[in-house]
Each structure stands twice: as C-alpha cells, then as structure tokens.
## 1
Amino acid sequence: MIRSALLVATALWTALPALASPELARSRICMGCHAVERKLVGPSFKDIAARYASQPDAVARMADKIVKGGSGAWGPVPMPANPKVTADEARQLAAWVMSLK
C-alpha cells in the first residue's frame, strides 16, 4: 500500500510542469552565460529584468528570445537559440527573471 502511494506521488510530481527557478535555469543551461546578479557572457538576470520592467509584453518577448535566440540587444555576443527549452519552460523562465527586478 505504501509502495503504491509512493509510486503515485512520484508520478504526479514528475508530471507537474517545472517551476521557474534557478534550478530550471541551471537545467536548461541558462546559467552557463547568465548569473542572477552579475554579468557573465550575457547580462545578469537582474539587469535583464530592470531593462524590461516597464514593458507589458516583456515575459512573452523574453520567452520568444529564450527559444529562438537573438543578437544586438546587449552587445555583439549573440544569444544562441535554445530549441530544447519548451515554450512553457521559456515563459516560466521569463516570468522568473522578471520577478528579480
């Protein structure tokens, strides 16, 4: 009985969408180029949040850029596309970044 309950709980836990957090950012290799509070290859997440804070569509635009990549917004180093990041994960990551402002 307990074993069955653990299996069900594990199945439910793994079926839940990933919550936006530093762990999701690390698992999707965002932290290879970005840090929360300091510039690495790309700008810090706090700097990104500050720049886009006044834009009502910031989460949608950022989510699109997370998946498709981009260039020129922060200097000469382009942000590569991240095709392994789902649209839902990209929205979660963008919302998390915007929460850091």
## 2
Amino acid sequence: MTDRNTMYERLIAVHSFPDTYIFKVIGDNSQDFVSRVVQAAINVMGKEQRLDVSTRSSSAGRHVAVTLSADVEDAETVLDIYEMLRVVQGVRFLV
C-alpha cells in the first residue's frame, strides 16, 4: 500500500491546486449507496463547496459507478476525501 506522503507527492506532481478533481467510486447498487458517497465527500469539503454528481449502473444492475467532480483547495483535501470514501459501506473500487 502506498503511504500518504507518496500519494501527496504524486498529486502535486500532476495537479495545480486549487483544482477540480474527479473521484470515481464503484459499489453496490443499493438504495443508499450514492447518498453515502456524496455525504462522505461533503463531510470533508463542507456543504458550501461545489460537488457535481453523476451515476451509471452496471449492465447487470448489481453495481453503480458514482462520479464526483469537486473543487478542492489542495492535495490534502483529495486525500482526506479518499479516506472517507474508503470506509463507505458498499464501496468495491475507488479511482
């Protein structure tokens, strides 16, 4: 597993902050999954920050891909959001 410092270095090497960052979360297509993903990002960013959300269900309907486009101030915020997303019930994959 990559440590937080390495991930931070990688982020600042390819992004200029503040920036719009896209998070992709794939998980169980349950009734509450999308709202839990959105709430995890809001918990880090606050309600006043811009957060665009789109979803797409898998062909079999068992999974849903959630795309979050968020205006973030710095790489630390990106890492904090990923930490919150990792513990969301039903998450199978993060990009």
## 3
Amino acid sequence: MKKLVISILVSFVAFSTPSFAEQYAAWPAPEGASVYFINLKDGAKVSSPVLVQMGLKGMGIAPAGVEKEGTGHHHILIDRPPLGQGEYQEEEWEYGIAMDYNHRHYGKGQTEVLLELEPGKHTLQMVFGDLYHIPFGPQMVTEVITITVE
C-alpha cells in the first residue's frame, strides 16, 4: 500500500508540474521545433561582417510584441556563457533576454543578419524567443559555436 501511495504521488507530481514553456514562454514550442545556424558551423573561419543565416523548424516568425501562437523571433548571444549560465542564469528564462552588445535581438522577424565582429575568436548561440523575448525552452536554443574572424 505504501508503494502504491508513493507511486501515485510521483505520478501526480510528474504530470502536474508545468513544463518549461508553461512556466515562462507565452505558449509552448511544438514538439520537434528547433533553431539552427544555416551557414555557420563550429570552428568556421569567416571575415567581418559575418553573415549569419538563422534557421527555424516547426514554428513561424513574428515580430516582437505580436501575439500569435506558434511564432517568435530570433536572438543571437555573442561572446558570453551559454543561455542560463553566468551572470544572468535563470533570469533569462523568466524575464527575457537582455539587450546589449552580447545579446542581439531580431524582433522585426529577421532571419539573416550581418554582424560586425573584431578579428579573433567569438562564440555565438542562437535563441528563439516569444513576443516578450522569453526563450521557448531548451529545444529552441542552439549549442554554442566558436568562429574565428580573420
């Protein structure tokens, strides 16, 4: 009987805990949705300005502030720890992505951009966020890639 009660409680907690997107983003990302760099790979050698083409699978693009389920817009994080680590940690997930040199917003719905970067190594990470710049969850964030601007 004790095992049955524990099993029921574990099942209740597992199925009643809100998903990541239900806790933060305006709506959940559909299953299988993802973001990716179209033209850049980890270790790429490039020249500035760097063309960055942002790919999206399973969702649509809408400008920041537009409330339309199943849509969002791109962000690129430059030369900083992966999303949710370092100075910002969980605040990025709950309150949205900062806006500065290291946090680029493409809230007009852009899917490609030219980045002016100094020569040397740089890290890039793409994040897909909702109308409030809140990330949709781990599946809507790329791995951090390192590029070298020559």
## 4
Amino acid sequence: MLVVAVALLSLGGFWLGTQAAGHAAVRVVVANHTGLPWVEVHQGDTLWKIADALSQGDDTGALVEEIKRLNGLSDSLIRPGARLYVPKDTTALRR
C-alpha cells in the first residue's frame, strides 16, 4: 500500500511539473569551451518543454533523456538560472 501511495505521489509531482505555466523560453548559445549549445532555464521551464522546443518533430522523450545524460542529471528537476547543454544535432536521436 505504501508503494502505491509513493508511486501516485511521484506521478502527481511529474504531472504538475509538466503542467507548469508558460512556454519554454529557449535561447540557444554556443558554449566555447565544449562546443555544445546550451539553454538557460527560466521560471516555469521543464525538461520536456525545452526538449519539445528544440526537437523540431523528433522524439521529445529521447531528447529529454539525452539532455539529462549530457548534464549528469539523475532526475528531471531543473532550476531557473541553470545552464543546460543540449545536443548539437537532435536528428541523431531519431529511431
């Protein structure tokens, strides 16, 4: 029963994160030290919104996972002001 309650709370938190108001204001800048583009996280942004804005019709879920991998994120929690590196070419994520 406790496992079900924890799972429901986790799903509810994820859902709330995807429902945050506002559209992801994405500004891509090339970081000189790594050559990877990055985005600055703004209030109300989620990884899903950022990936959706960058995906250009590609698999948004795969792009979310790639952004998490590039930035060493173990979960989808991001904070305003953070800089997230994104893949140079999202077409490589097509399956």
